[in-house]
What does this fold into?
Amino acid sequence: MKRTVDVIWINLLLLSLASFLIGKFELSNISIFIILLISIFIKGELVIDYFMGLKDVDWRYRSIPILWLVIILLLIFIAYYLPEQS
Amino acid sequence: MIQSKAIKKQYPPGDFAIWIVIYIELITFGLFFIGYAFSRRLNVDMFNNSQLLLDKNSGFIDTLLLLTSSYFIVKAIQNIKDKTLTIKKANEIASKWLFSAIGFGSIFLINKLLEFSNLFEHGITLSTNTFFMFYLLLTMFHFMHVCLGIVILIAIFKQTKLYSYTSNECSGLETGASYWHLIDLLWIVLFSLVYIIR
It folds into this structure.
């Protein structure tokens, strides 16, 4: 468990670095956009499960922040993707 | 008897009241995020052009600072819960981790203040445009949460100096930690949404 947190932290930093580089090079297309949303979800999920310690907690309490994350990301996807269709 | 699955805890770590606060905060920030995303639809070019004025390097440094401070707090809790350590030793190690977390959180605040002052020097305010209205509201609201988070961490840090926490009695530490991780979680979404996604 102790080592797990170290690995989680390194993964969070690497995912953040990847997001930063995407932003730095101003990459923007639908594929990049989806990759960024997935990256946010993975990072959020890691924080919820391993930092907040909800991984081994009753599903009701764990599901609220996960559901929040999913809904937010879905709505962001809808908000960003719809204009490209018009 | 060998158990194939870890027993699920009934309640999340820390005081239950903090989780009510956390869920309310998630909804509040969530509405801001959705508001930002849908407002962008009305003027995509303005949002994209305004976004170019933000300092991505600073935003990335902020991300590293918050993620690392959260990691330090997890390490502090791990040491407190380590039954192989004496109470005194566990609290001493935890206090060092917490001190580092407070330090990183403070650097975050300084970095953010520099970012705000840089924008204000360029004449950017809440009324500049919709993008900056959302940017300033979101980041300043988050900034205030970080300030409160640091105050909580300092209170917890003081308790470790008094050797108050044990592996069985560390609810106060977990409560403060949960709030700090919320700040971290919110920043993960905020950073990508406002600084990166175009």
About this structure: Chain A touches chain B through 47 residues (CB under 8 Å). Residues 1-13+22-85 of chain A form one domain. The mean pLDDT of chain A is 91.
